[in-house]
Amino acid sequence: MIRMFYTDPGYFSNWEYNDVTVATQCSANHLHHVVKLWERWSGPISVAVFAPNLEASFATDAILSMQKCWPDMKKRVTFHLVYPTQHKADVSESTGTLDYNSCEELRQIIHDYGGDDSQNYKGDIPYPHNVLRNAARKGAATEFVFLIDVDVMPSLHMREGFNEFANKFKHGLYEEKGDKAVFVVPVFEILKGHQCPDDKADLKDAQMTRKEVRPFHNATCRWCHEPEDHDNWLMKPKNEHMEVAFNATWNKIGFDCLYLLSWEPFYIARRSVPLFDERFKQYGFDRIEQICELHVAGYRFSVLNNAFLVHDGWKEAHAAARMTETFRNWVLFHFHFQQALLKMYDEPLSCAPVQTWIPRGQRLLGDINNRHARIQRKFLSSEV
């Protein structure tokens, strides 16, 4: 890994420790999202970029070109190139710039790199989401980290609102180091190409009047964000200052266990929260595992009012290949990760459903113990 890649020498002097850093990750073909993120977030941003082999040459030229187009980006954004040891970063084809005539053309060149933009990484190397998330987190120099995907955009002035919120307590959140709270930010999705809402009033109008906005993964995995209770959140009046709208209760009556097992919220948390398990690669359970650990470790999930995220485009059904990836991670989660949590924490908490869920297409008949044994044998006989 190459940390602090092409960063302004005065980067660390620009920020107080009592602040919030956006931590995100992507492959080279999604670097164009960083520009919009930088435009909407006024604080520091830490970006981990997956750059194996010659991907590193394009990533290098893209980053340097972005910094020429938007010089102030160096003052707020750090890039960290991450690559597997067997596919080391190769910058031999880097020229130091991309061939473009305008900054808007540069965005399009990065957007078009590699063809289809629908996937974060399209190579034959497993995409290490959690390695990248941890790298981005470790690149943050502030007390709080806002961990999000690179293609979701925050509401305007969220950083300022959270810092005011954090400092209004008797001693301030920045002084209460032992507080076990993560601050969940509800996430929505908007029709491709429509303007991202700036505040809650604009968001409500976009959803209820213009019908452009809906809860994130509404058609593909609605339960993945069900505990954020979007309808309840939208009914909360917009206040002048940021505040906690409600706490998401893990075992709330009426919640299907599957909702909680599949919950993958975006949140602001202290830099000291548990890291992501780097065994999870590609898609499925890669964020759920860390939320599960936070629950078992005794953290509470406070959903913020007046703060939200928006993904550009409505999510569509995944390709069949993703189901295989999800199945592998499901087995890793149930048979290895959750068992390890029992040994790590004394709290008698669990995030498993009452009856273990098996992905469609992998469901087998027979005694549950026999099914588990057969699934585990299948998993262990294949490559994770």
Automatic annotation (TrEMBL):
- How does the record say this protein sits in the membrane? Single-pass type II membrane protein
This entry carries the following GO cellular component terms, namely: Golgi membrane
Q: In which pathway does it act?
A: Protein modification; protein glycosylation
Single GO biological process annotation from the record:
protein O-linked glycosylation via mannose
The record, for InterPro entries, names:
B4GAT1
Q: Which metal ions or organic cofactors does this protein require, according to UniProt?
A: Mn(2+)
- Give UniProt keywords alphabetically: Glycoprotein, Glycosyltransferase, Golgi apparatus, Manganese, Membrane, Metal-binding, Signal-anchor, Transferase, Transmembrane, Transmembrane helix
One GO MF term attached to the UniProt entry: glucuronosyltransferase activity
Coiled coil regions in record: none
- Where's it found, cell-wise? Golgi apparatus membrane
Pfam families on file: Glyco_transf_49 (PF13896)
Q: What reaction is this protein's catalytic activity?
A: 3-O-[beta-D-Xyl-(1->4)-Rib-ol-P-Rib-ol-P-3-beta-D-GalNAc-(1->3)-beta-D-GlcNAc-(1->4)-(O-6-P-alpha-D-Man)]-Thr-[protein] + UDP-alpha-D-glucuronate = 3-O-[beta-D-GlcA-(1->3)-beta-D-Xyl-(1->4)-Rib-ol-P-Rib-ol-P-3-beta-D-GalNAc-(1->3)-beta-D-GlcNAc-(1->4)-(O-6-P-alpha-D-Man)]-Thr-[protein] + UDP + H(+)
Keyword Methyltransferase annotated: no
Belongs to which family?
Answer: Belongs to the glycosyltransferase 49 family.
This protein's name: Beta-1,4-glucuronyltransferase 1
